[in-house]
Amino acid sequence: MSRATVRERVRYWFDNTMSRGTAALIGWLALISFGLILLVTVLGMWLTPVEAAKNNGFPGMLWMSLMRTLSPGKVASDSGSAPFVALMFVASLGGLFIVSALVGVLANGLKTRFEQLRKGKSRIIETGHIVILGWSEQVFTIVTELVQAHASDRGSVISILADMDKPTMEDDIRRHVGDTGRTKLVCRTGRPTEPTDLDLMSLDSARSVVVLSPQGDDPDAHVIKTLLALAKRSGDHPPVVAAIASTANMAAARLAGGPDVHLVDSDDTASRLIVQSSRQSGMSVVCMDLLNFDDGEIYLRSDPDLTGMAYGDALPAYQTATVIGLRGSSGVMLNPPMDTVISAGDEVIVIAHDDSLIHLADGMPEAREESILSVEHTGPAPERTLVLNWNGRGRQIVRYLDGYVAPGSVLDIASDHPDAATGFEGLRNLTVNAKECDTADRYALESLGLGVYQHVIVLSDDRFLAGHADTRTLMTLLQLRDMQTSLGERYSIVSEMHDENNRSLAEVTEADDIVISDTVIGLLLAQLAENQHLAEVFDYLFDSRGSEIYPRPAGQYVRPGAPVSFASVIESARRRGETAIGYRLAERVNEAPHFGVVLNPDKSRPLRLGPGDSVIVLAER
After folding, report:
1. Which carries the bigger pLDDT value, residue 583 or residue 71?
2. What positions does the domain RCK N-terminal occupy (predicted)?
3. Domains of the chain
4. What tens digit of pLDDT does each residue of 395-421 get?
5. Quick one: CA dihedral 546, 552, 554, 557, positive or negative?
6. CA distances from 367 to 62, 364, 373, 611 (A)
């Protein structure tokens, strides 16, 4: 290869300086301006000595050249010899080029800077903020709940980092969430898997971090890579909460995130809720009320006044809060044995509308003995359950259902999904049968003989996009409701959907429960972003071991139709070893948003529970 010439080297050096951006361009223009002004001044001193003398010599000529260069219009007022006018004209002509070039460079530089700001590439300067990494439909649920949680707080900040355009993120959140009140929302464009982009979020001073499972193929790989990037960064590490879509990837995610990361198993949580909702009508509504920040929330509270008291005696201790369990050195236990003594280091787990309302009552409300009944619960009998449609969490649902039902129960799966007929070995209580069926076809549904079933579960078909799958689910629900009406049959219907916006449409079908799986996971992530200690409580709540939530006939606890206080309901449940947390009114089961569910009622306010109403309790099966 031949050696570079001097011209090529100069050209290469010039190209490198020009590539340094706006500042380099302005520097070159300044240098050209200085050269032009100096040249015109020297020529003026040489060619026009008379005019130079009139204008105070070299300094005056230098000033005149500068003014003509910066303000070319001044040339019109010049007078003198032809060489002088010609020199001023040259300075003005050069000034036209320099000024126009400077304006163009500044305009382009400002445009580039504004575009960078628009893209959200600057580092945020916040403390105590909540960081959301990634983007999915769950982000709207999480932001809505966090805004609600911080409605009375000044200076709260939610920051989002996602591989999207900043204005697009802001517009989507405004459209889905609306006004964020006192909570400031800050969006930044970047990849959560890139350490340099993570540095934009000031993670050292963040309160907590939420890692979302994105939409698309293999979302868990993205979450795991983000957890690795968080673990490898230097500095302080705030608490991290992440959602994993597939149970099979939980072990890898734990290894990537380390012991300080709390993982939410989306498949497992949704599967448990679907199964529990199919067994206890209203279960999904109760869980949604506990998970959101609108009404009853779960709090952990240390109260020295309860130390030494038995758990059962402490149940009516709060007028506007409901005790549901204890958190001690051995962990969380909901509805512990009634004789469990509250130790000095124990925290009481309560449901309350706000932490400011958690205070001991002036006196324990009295239960009315004449209103309390003691009717034994009947044990579960073998039953038949029908599952319509199929998806990847179907086998988990079947195995969890096997742990609930009595021996000899039957589960039929009706679907044209290719994976719906295998993988059911090792079941103890269920006999599983698979049937080929197009669940959107009315005649195919009628051929199933739905009147022999006690429970019907409608799953979301994972062969379709979420929106189309929800549409097919709605069609199936409408068919089931019409069949129930025309044939006079009664069986509980629990359906799974993706989009919370479809709930209002699904309410027309009067399904007993509708589980919006994405919304449930979003609500859970928002709760854990606020308080990671609640992870143990929700793990216990969704686990089939230990006490669970059960809506049970009110007539087993208090006299139907008689005026009673909720304190009497609590006392009746306590005698059974159960913790009453609310009730459900049958006449309001179709009224959104609570569908008749009332959690944490005032203990002294009178109420009447009819034959169709339910008492919501924490109890062993």
Report:
1. 583
2. 127-263
3. 6-119 (1.10.287), 129-259 (3.40.50.720), 384-513 (3.40.50.720)
4. 999 998 998 888 999 999 999 988 887
5. negative
6. 100, 9, 12, 20
